[in-house]
């Protein structure tokens, strides 16, 4: 189950007692506070706290006071200017703290984004739950023939069934041995910090993850991309929805100038100019590698 009864009781208690504050609040993100959004088979993401809003970005950019003296229209225009010209520090004035439950192998991808504050559930101190990520059949895919990091078509029939059974059986067997090793029933019991090495990478962990908006946008640009691994992308996609309700002007600018944009090399720009001038551009005369030219053609649809 995504939430334990204790966690749900804590959420209910926190949402039942609104706290008065003088700081800026955003109704859109307030509606999400503490609620857990289920993801994958046992995971979730939930907002624990936030600081700042769209006006805080503008306030920092102008180094003004209060909520500033500019109109809403000017605020949106300024945010789009900042995003368009890669002025990142004003976005660092906003922060978001999330509670995330996710498979360990997803966490190891996630932690590569080193610009956040993280505190993870300790398997040295506590006993991990018997919860494992088991993909849906349509998420079981073969290795991509053109991308060493990607997936190809979904496995079919007996092969898919066999892989699913192995994933379930191996996970359960590993956890059984983990539980037996740490048990103190008739034995000393192995230390938890050692026994955890036997657990598979699809077991679930949890952490608190706090990040500023600039670095959160960098995370989302990579992990909400169609090329990202599915299991981390579902988390990124959900976080995108939360951010859109928190800082709508900033998120719209991020969508337009980062998430939905492309980056072209000098060679690509030169080829585009030549094509607009009516010249035929081919792989042989483009001064790009075969892969880069394929990516260039994909950008142009």
From TrEMBL:
InterPro entries linked to this entry: Thymidylate_synthase_ThyX, Thymidylate_synthase_ThyX_sf
Record: residues binding FAD: 89, 112-114, 120, 212-214, 218
Domain of life: Bacteria
MF-aspect GO terms: flavin adenine dinucleotide binding; NADPH binding; thymidylate synthase (FAD) activity; thymidylate synthase activity
Keyword Transferase: yes
PROSITE patterns for this protein: THYX
Pfam family, one: Thy1
EC number: 2.1.1.148
Catalytic activities: dUMP + (6R)-5,10-methylene-5,6,7,8-tetrahydrofolate + NADPH + H(+) = dTMP + (6S)-5,6,7,8-tetrahydrofolate + NADP(+)
Keywords: FAD, Flavoprotein, Methyltransferase, NADP, Nucleotide biosynthesis, Transferase
Enzyme class: transferase
Pathway(s) per entry: Pyrimidine metabolism; dTTP biosynthesis
Job description of the protein: Catalyzes the reductive methylation of 2'-deoxyuridine-5'-monophosphate (dUMP) to 2'-deoxythymidine-5'-monophosphate (dTMP) while utilizing 5,10-methylenetetrahydrofolate (mTHF) as the methyl donor, and NADPH and FADH(2) as the reductant.
HAMAP family named in the record: ThyX (MF_01408)
Similarity comment: Belongs to the thymidylate synthase ThyX family.
Subunit structure, as described in the record: Homotetramer.
Protein name according to UniProt: Flavin-dependent thymidylate synthase
Species for this entry: Pseudooceanicola algae
Gene: thyX
